[in-house]
Amino acid sequence: MCKIQRYSCADFSGGRLAYYKRGLSWEDFKKGYLEFLKKPETQAKISLLIDMTKTQIVTVLCVEDNPEFCHRKLLLEEIQRLDPNIKVIIF
């Protein structure tokens, strides 16, 4: 049986979703989001995602149509930095 674990984007967004709708530049958003990813409570959630990849396929979705300017890409890059053995496909 496959266990499905759901996290909302709010778990990993730090309240910084839709940066473009709030007048933030991508660079300002990226800087703040990367700082958010380094917080201990966020690192704990990232560790849970990493653990999940050991037993199942994990998919990270977002409404942004271009992953180049999306928090999911930054999150996945952080996951891969922490565990280079994880296969990450961004599209």
Give the helices and strands, then pairings.
Blueprint: H1 10-13, H2 26-37, H3 40-53, H4 71-82
Helix pairs in contact: 2-4
What does this entry look like structurally?
This protein has four helices and no strands. The model has no long low-confidence stretch (mean pLDDT 80). With 91 residues, the chain is an all-alpha fold. It has helices at 10-13, 26-37, 40-53, 71-82. It has one domain. Helix 2 (26-37) packs parallel to helix 4. The radius of gyration is 13 Å and the shape is globular.
Q: Short description, anyone?
A:
By secondary structure, the protein is mostly helical. The chain is 46% helix and 0% strand.
Instruction: Give the strand content.
Output: under 5%
Please trace the helix and strand order, writing H or E for each element.
HHHH
Oligomeric organization of the protein chains? single chain
Helix/strand/pairing class, anyone? mainly alpha
Q: Please tally the helical runs, counting DSSP H or I stretches of 4 or more residues.
A: 4
Global outline = globular
Helix content: 40-55%
Largest sheet: none
